[in-house]
Every structure is written in C-alpha cells, then in structure tokens.
Amino acid sequence: METYLGEKQQASQWSPYINNGGSCLAVAGDDFAVIASDTRMSLGYSIKTRYSTKYLKITEKCSIVSSGMQADIFTLHKVLKSRAQIYEQKHGKPMSTDAVAKLVSRLLYYRRFFPYYTFNIVAGIDDEGVGCVFSYDAIGTLERVKYSASGSGSSLIEPVLDNQVALKNRNDIKKEDFKLTKEYAIDLVKDAITSAGERDIYTGDFVEISVIDINGTHEEKFELRFD
Amino acid sequence: MQKGGFNFDLYQRNVELIEKNNYKVPKTTKTGTTIVGVVFSDGVVLGADTRATSGPIVADPNCEKIHRISDYIWCAGAGTAADTENTTGMISLQLELLSLSTGRSPRVRTALTLLKNFLFRYHGYISAALVLGGVDFTGPHLHMIHPHGSTSTLPYISMGSGSLAAMAVLETGYSSKMGEEDAKSLVHQAILSGILNDLGSGGNVDLCVIKHKSMEFFRNIDTTNSKRKFRKKLPYMFKSGSTKILEKEIEEKMRKMEIVNEKENAIEELEEL
C-alpha cells in the first residue's frame, strides 16, 4: 500500500510460525553419545515458561532434541513416539538408531509444503555400538555427523565444537592422538551450553542432558542463568 | 543555511538504498533494559539493570546505564546505547557551562528542558528514553523523557523493555510515605523483576540514591543472577604453535651492555652471591 509521500509500506501478513527460542546440541564418541537442550520457552522478549522439554527418549539407544516452535516440536515428538511404539510392537524389537533417523527425515519431508518449524538433532548408538549424531534441516535433509548444534545459540556453540571435537584450526594436537572420552564430552557439552546461556538471551533456565551408551540412557538436569 | 534540527535531505536516498540496492541497515546496540526511579521522603532512588543487547545477543553483560548529569542530578537511559550516552553527556556539559555562567547550582528541571528540547528537534530518531532524577535546592524531582521529547513528572517511573515487569512491582509496593530503605528495597525488587522476567534485561542491579547534597552510587549491588552456574574443571589449553606461525619477529627490549670495568674472578663472586 502506498502512502501520500509515495513510499511503499509493507503490510505485515499473518504467519503460522513463531520461534520459541532455545538451543540444542549433541556430540558422538566412539561408544557413546551426549545430547543436551535447554528448557526455556520464550516469545518475543517474554519468558512463557522456564521448563518446557525439547528432549524425547525414543529408545534406550536413541534420543532426539528439537529447537524452534514449541507447538511443532510437541506434535513431531508425539508422532515420533507413537511411530516408534508401533514399530516395536510390529517387529518385536525396538527401532535401531539408523531407522529412527530415517523415520524423522521422512516425517519431516511428508510436510514438505507446510513444514514443521523444528530444527532437530538425533543422537544415539548405532547397530555396531558406535556413537552417532544426525542433524536435519526443517524439511528433513539427513546427515550423519560427529557433533551438531541447533537453535538460537547454535552460532555460539558450533564454533566451540568445531575447535574442541573436530580439532579444526589447531596445530597443537593431531587427530590420531586425540581420544574423545565420555567425561571430556559431557564437560564440554555442559560448558558449551552454559556459555550459550551467558550470551544468548533465548537460552537459559535449565538444561536436560543425557548420555547414551551400551548400558542405556542416563538423564541429568542442571541449572543455567535465570535472567 | 539550516540552523538546527533534523536534515531530511538523505531520506529519499536511504529509502532507495534499502529497497533497490538491498542495503542492510546496521544493527544498533540497544540496551533492552529495565530502568526505574522512585521519589521518597528525603530524595530520589534510581535503579537499572546492566545488560546491553545487540539483537538476541548480549553485547555487554555489565554496562553502566545510570549516567551523571551533575553531582546531584543523575539519569538512567534505555534505548540505543550510543544515543543515551551521548545525549546525557552533551546535556551534562551544557548544564555545567550554564551553572558556571549563572553562578548557581543546576536544577533538575533545567536538565529536563535541555533534554526534551534536544530530543524533540530530532523527532524521535534519537532513540533515548530517560529517567531523570535528582535533588536541587527546590527539593527532590523525578521525570521521565520519551524519545520524541514528551515528559512526565511522577512519583515512580519505569522505562525500557522490562518496564511492565518493573511497574507491576512498583504499583504493588509504592507508598507516598516511604523512607530511604523502603525505596531502595522497592527499586531493587523492581529491577530484579525486570531482570528475571524480561529477556532484554539481565545481569546485575545498579542503584543510585540522591538526597540533599548527597549521592550514593551502588554499582552491582546485586550480582546473584549473573553468576555462571557451571564451569569445566579442565581449562582450554592451547600450546604455542596451535595457531600456525607464518612469520616470527623478535624485538630486542634490552640495550646492548658495555663492559666498563672488568674485574678478575667477577663471575665467581657473583656465583657466591
């Protein structure tokens, strides 16, 4: 629409999507995976709730974290949980991590023309017992990686993981000499998401972190800043 | 020649740059902010949080938002950080010159008039929302100034993105018969409310208590919300050579020494020491 001065004014159109903020990350080791997400749900400059889970345990060997719009995260997790249950009842065994990863990709692409506003990371142990992380875009592009971060704090977390896990831009230590231990990975994940909480206003309150290995999933919760 | 006020000559060019040339307007550092002022029996209390944001990122987790206009006139600012700092800085200088030329101590309403006239000339383009408080010989005063140049004189004020959270506390707790400790506690609670409930505010609480010929500035009076909750035990270690060395240049800091007097067995004597 044009005003009398001849400038064009953009009419703001209604959008079905909102961003509730938050950060997620996952790191895979040789025989384990660590996955974490914060629990703050925001809208604009307000906090809607300090605890709204973005994490779902799908099987003992596989979990998912998602950031983006809480409504779509909730629905996607609901659908995923029921599909995993149906599979287990039909096949008499729980879904393997690779199967879960592919299923998430298909569920997302099914909504190619009205996507879930979710940025997902799946992590777990594959059939050989090796840790794995799968990262996605909103419409289901699947990529298996060693680590991944998504959400409002992803640009703060990803460079830290690039340097500390993939040893990028480091000439002091060689990849052959570096072993990613479980304790190191857990500390690194906790540190990275705490640092994101310091500088990103949408990340904070609590963190749900879980460690997946051959013995199952161990879940933990710790506090971040409340401001 | 234009005497003052905003020059709109480049407006058309700016509109075209944004629309046709895809020019990205640079982000200004906003202070997000919760700022508060309360009048009590003997004076005024000003409060502010300490977070400066650049979009969704915290640019400065511990900045100072309470600015000095004169010894007993202080001003808390919300909006664009550069605007609040430079506006209060300029008016502080003007007020000092004025007080020297009139031979009288500055009044709060003078600062108010200087600030509102300055901001009005720029039609809101200078994004400074201020809470001006102080005690002069006519008593304690508290005013709020909007970016467009309008002002209000009130017993309690809150501004910034956290103003609603702070005002909720002020409306509940304010009484016209408050003493200094009550007022300080109320302002503290109001700022805390902004820090905890507003994402644009955070960090520490700053307080400023102004009474007749007395000013107390409590910088970071409350730091409970700005403590990092987890820190990795093993530090991040980067040995020399982690970043590839392309060039090495060693500068000699010590001048060459001349041997003035040579003594026999000098080295043995030094070793004995």
From TrEMBL, chain A:
Species of origin: Anaeramoeba flamelloides
Top-level taxon of the source organism: Eukaryota
Keyword field contains Membrane: no
Cross-referenced InterPro entries: Ntn_hydrolases_N, Proteasome_bsu_CS, Proteasome_sua/b, Proteasome_suB-type
Compartment list: Cytoplasm; Nucleus
Name of the protein in question: Proteasome subunit beta
Keyword list, A-Z: Cytoplasm, Nucleus, Proteasome
Purpose of the protein: Component of the proteasome, a multicatalytic proteinase complex which is characterized by its ability to cleave peptides with Arg, Phe, Tyr, Leu, and Glu adjacent to the leaving group at neutral or slightly basic pH. The proteasome has an ATP-dependent proteolytic activity.
UniProtKB/TrEMBL annotation, chain B:
Keyword tags: Coiled coil, Cytoplasm, Hydrolase, Nucleus, Protease, Proteasome, Threonine protease
PROSITE patterns registered for this protein in UniProt: PROTEASOME_BETA_1, PROTEASOME_BETA_2
Subunit structure: Component of the proteasome complex.
Active site residues according to the UniProt entry: 33 (nucleophile)
InterPro entries (alphabetical): Ntn_hydrolases_N (IPR029055), Pept_T1A_subB (IPR000243), Proteasome_bsu_CS (IPR016050), Proteasome_sua/b (IPR001353), Proteasome_suB-type (IPR023333)
Keyword Nucleotide-binding: no
Gene3D superfamilies attached to this UniProt entry: Glutamine Phosphoribosylpyrophosphate, subunit 1, domain 1
Cellular compartments per GO CC: cytoplasm; nucleus; proteasome core complex
Major localisation: cytoplasm
Membership in a protein family: Belongs to the peptidase T1B family.
Function according to Swiss-Prot or TrEMBL: Component of the proteasome, a multicatalytic proteinase complex which is characterized by its ability to cleave peptides with Arg, Phe, Tyr, Leu, and Glu adjacent to the leaving group at neutral or slightly basic pH. The proteasome has an ATP-dependent proteolytic activity.
PANTHER family recorded: METALLOPROTEASE TLDD (PTHR32194), PROTEASOME SUBUNIT BETA TYPE-7 (PTHR32194:SF4)
Pfam families: Proteasome (PF00227)
Entry annotated with the keyword Coiled coil: yes
Parts forming coiled coils: 243-273
Top-level taxon in the UniProt lineage: Eukaryota
Subcellular location: Cytoplasm; Nucleus
Any one GO biological process: proteolysis involved in protein catabolic process
Reaction catalysis annotation: Cleavage of peptide bonds with very broad specificity
One function term, GO molecular function aspect: threonine-type endopeptidase activity
Protein name (Swiss-Prot/TrEMBL): Proteasome subunit beta
